[in-house]
Each structure stands twice: as structure tokens, then as C-alpha cells.
Predict the 3D structure of the following.
Amino acid sequence: MIHKHPKDESYYSERYDRMTIDECECWDSEVCDAYAKSGKKFDPEKPSRRLHGGYLADFYSCFIKGERYLRKEETVRQWMESDRAKDEKLESAVEPKGVRCINCSSPDMSCISRDLMTDSQNEESVLFMFQCGKCGNRRAYWENGVEWKPRPNPCPKCRAEMRSERSRRCDVIEIIYFCPKCQYTENDIIDLGKKEEFVDPDFETKRKKYCLSDEEGKKYSSAKITMEQASSFMEKWKEKEENKDLYDAIDNIKKLTISDLQKFLDPIIERAGYAKLEFEKPDLQKDVILGFGLQDAKSGRSDRESAYELKKLLKKSLEGTNWRLMSEGVSYRLGFLTGRLRGAEGEEDFKKLILDNKN
């Protein structure tokens, strides 16, 4: 017999709703206790108005219902996928062969059940239960062919290994554990009879009270998004007010495109004795990296002097813009100078640019 999990989605939905009801009733109980301690009578139609910070009790109750609704679909999906995977593991497990009865050595051992259990390595594995058709003795094997062994049960008094005897009457199994060394004994009763599951006659009423409908859930979701957006806006506004100088500096940055940069630098470098500024194809990754090359048009200027003066010129000229000369500086070869510029775009990059200038 294979013990499978339920497949009907309504089972999982009801299971989730019962948990929602329990959580909401727990909160209602706390509100009632607060009223009892205050000496006031609790009216369920008018929940706490002064206790728990005014309307906080009502607000938190709505919060529980709403958050439970938002998590329901994903939680139910995960439960169903988990149980489906367990069932597939049960069905695909291969039954061990060649099992013989340890009591009478009969090979007539038939598998009477398979269950997903936790093995000695604390991992889920399929356990097969075999029963002898001759004497009724049973043996259990894991799917990898290793026989199941009961965990050691030391005596609580002398720590010697306890032994056990079992007796069964109908669906009730009695296990007597006894210590062969100090005669300590203890009993364990296992009732295998099918117990009727408790059915709450008020379940549907409670479900309607505590579990949001799709319409109510969508309203809650929409309201939550609106509140989060408003909160985000207020936090950003507060941050801008607290860092007004920083944001004023960002507004004052001269934000140049690559085309604007060419027009901006051409007259500056020409006045300093350089010519023919050309840009390479930009490297568009996290930052915009722009390689450049130009010629030194001023005769008699040494290589070191030329590279130093261009580096100084670019650093000074690019202050106040969204471009910076990269740390490797400028290279000089036979009157041709090369280097790289980094361009900033976006508020976060501009912040970093301003803060780097201050350091």
C-alpha cells in the first residue's frame, strides 16, 4: 500500500485558511485579555478603540488577514509541489529483492506498505515494510536495500540497552520496554484505529470572517502598494531635504552627451596647443568608458610636459561636468596622446561623483 498525499487543491486551500483562522483568533484572544485586565467588557462588534494604541487592534487584524491572503497562492502552490514530488518519489522507488523472514527463513515475504520516512542520515527515503506469509513476522528495508534498525534505547536509570516485547489487540499495540540489568520498565500504547478528524461546525462562518475573498484581497493588495509607494516617496523626499546641498550640486552638474563633450573640449584643447581630438567607440557597461586620442600641435614640448599639461587641463576642464579622466592618466607616444574618460549618468552616479570630489 502506498500512502499518497491529497491532490485536490481545495484541501490545501482549506488547510491554509484554518491556519489563518487560528492566527486571527489568537489575536482576538489577546484583545479580549487586554479588555479583561482593564475591567471593561469586550464587545466583539466594536473591537478595541482605546487599548493597543487606539485603532491599532483593528488595523493589525486587517493586516493579518491581508498578508495571509497575499501569501496564500504561493504557499498552496509550494505545498502541492512538495507533496507531488514526495508521491513521485514513493511511486518510483524500487522494491528491494531477496528478503527472507528472519524468524522462519521463509522467502514468502510480501511488501505490505511503502512510506516516505527520515533515515539515519536525516534525509527522506522510502521505507518498505515486508510481512512473512508463513509466520506473519515483519522486516523493513530502505529503498537502497539497507535494513531498518531501531534506534538504540538506553535505560534512563543505568544506560543499559533496553529490550522490548509487543502485543496487539485489534488496532491497539502495546510495547513493553524493560531493562535486563536493573529491571526498569515502561509501557507505550499505539492506537492504529482511524480517528475521526475534528470538524469545526463554525468553519465556514469563521472563514468568511477571517479569510479575505478575491475581491477583498485585491483591494488590500492595491492599498498596500499605494501605501508603499507613498512611504517610498516620503522617505526619498526626507532624504533629499536632509541632503539638500548634495542634490543642489547634482542639479548644477553640466550633463554632457558624447557629442556635447566633443564640442565642449575641442576649443579648450586647441587653445592649449593640442589638436584633432577623436573618441573611440564607447564601452557601455556599468559606466560609460570613452577612450580618446589627440595630437600635440605645440612644437618643442617634451613628452612628460605634454602628458602632464594635458592631464592637468582635462581634470580642471571636466570639473562641474559628468565626465572624469580615469586614474591611469595620459600616455604619450611621438606626439600622440591617449587616455580614457569615464562618464556618469543617473542620480546614484552623480552622487558618487560629488562625494568623490569632496574626498
Remarks:
- DSSP finds eight helices and eleven strands in the chain.
- The chain has three domains: 9-92, 109-191, 252-358.
- Residues 56-92 form the longest helix (37 residues).
